[in-house]
Amino acid sequence: MKDNRSIYFDNAATSWPKPEEVYEAAGKVLRYSGSNPGRSAHTRSIQAERIVFEARERAASFLGAEFPEEIIFTLNATDSLNMAIKGVLEQGDHVIYTSMEHNSVLRPLGSQKEGGGITTTMVSPDADGFLEVEKVAEAIKPETKMIICTHASNIIGSIMPAAAIANLAKEKDIVFLLDAAQTAGSLPLNLQKIRPHLAAFTGHKSLLGPPGVGLLYVCKGLHIKPWREGGTGSSSEEERQPQLMPDYLEAGTMNTPGLAGLNEGIKFIQEQGVSTIRQHDLYLLNMLREGLKKIEGTTVYGSDDTSSSVAVVSFTVEGMDSGELGYILEEVYGILCRTGLHCAPQAHRTIGTFPQGTVRFSPGYFNTEEEVEYVLESLRKITVSFK
Ligand SMILES: Cc1ncc(COP(=O)(O)O)c(C=O)c1O
């Protein structure tokens, strides 16, 4: 359901609208099920367990995990990243990360660094967001325990060389954590092809699910410390967390309405086909980039080679504050987008837009060509009246 008063161009923050089935599935669970999965032996608890099971099976097969129990349900990508970072790192470890990382990576690393716990090296791509794997290789030290890389920038959309970094990490026996918050659902993604040790996903962006559900892929055989322990409904006699996956990392009541919604979101993507979604995204992205570049005074960031980019475009207008521009876009034209630093300050340093930030448009599968034309025309009017 879309309301016709606004144009939603903020899908990189969270996708909207969701497929109708997502609303229906989540509402149905809340209204009619209301049971705790895997805790009780009654029918509704078993039905709730089935929701978790189905969502896990579907997510695992969609993302290309070898085993369903490699998929751990979390709250969001931030939760998954924290779980991975804090579950692996120990005093004295060294971590390599890129300047395109989100604060959900930068801040957990920052807190782990406090008091000399760990050391880090940041590697930067070029201003178009493209990273040379050699730079990552050069940063490796004997004590390097982990490499962290976003799969695609949430500011300029550039896709990072995930499989090449995964190979390098394997060769050097280093844990590779991939942040796939911006790619799952909008890019063909197969974990068995990329082969990271850990990968963080979020349900509410391009997987088209509701907020409150994230996923962490933990490659079979990799041991990480749980950062939350408690009830699982299994081995209740034990004082310690059951060692069996996924229970080991999934303490507490699961978000069954969210998981039912996520299951439908992924199902919708499977039915449409990721390549159809990708084609649609690229079409709108190219239209946006081309149109923005023709507007006087506008600087568009990132590469024009959109085949290596997800549907995110950042720009500035000479002499205009990005926040103010975002405000006018909504107040006068009903266009919803995101402005500022987008929780990725180092990425803005890399592209040269720190501290003022940019305006970010991120169209999604439900946006149309007409909407892109309206957005471009609105921006033209704003820049003309600003002169
Ligand atoms: C690259 C990246 N990583 C992590 C996150 C955090 O995602 P979540 O809001 O699901 O925790 C985001 C969200 O914007 C992101 O773009």
In short:
By secondary structure, the chain is of the alpha/beta class.
- Identify the bound ligands: pyridoxal-5'-phosphate
* Secondary-structure class: alpha/beta
Q: What is the tally of helical segments?
A: 12
For the report, how would you describe the main beta sheet? Answer: 7 strands, mixed
Task: Describe what this molecule looks like in 3D.
The structure is a single chain. Helices cover 39% and strands 14% of the residues. By secondary structure, it is of the alpha/beta class. It is built from 12 helices and 13 strands. The protein has helices spanning 20-33, 43-63, 77-88, 103-113, 133-138, 162-171, 191-194, 256-272, 274-293, 322-333, 345-351, 369-386; strands at 7-8, 71-74, 94-98, 119-123, 144-150, 175-179, 198-202, 214-218, 298-300, 313-317, 335-336, 338-340, 358-361. The strands form 3 sheets. It has a 7-stranded mixed β-sheet with strand order 2-8-7-6-5-3-4, with helices on both faces. The chain folds into 2 domains: 7-18 and 273-386, Aspartate Aminotransferase, domain 1, CATH 3.90.1150; 20-271, 3-Layer(aba) Sandwich (Aspartate Aminotransferase, domain 2), CATH 3.40.640.10. 47% of the residues are buried. Residues 13, 76-78, 102, 104, 150, 154, 179, 181-182, 202, 214 line the site of pyridoxal-5'-phosphate. The site of pyridoxal-5'-phosphate has 13 residues, from helix 3.
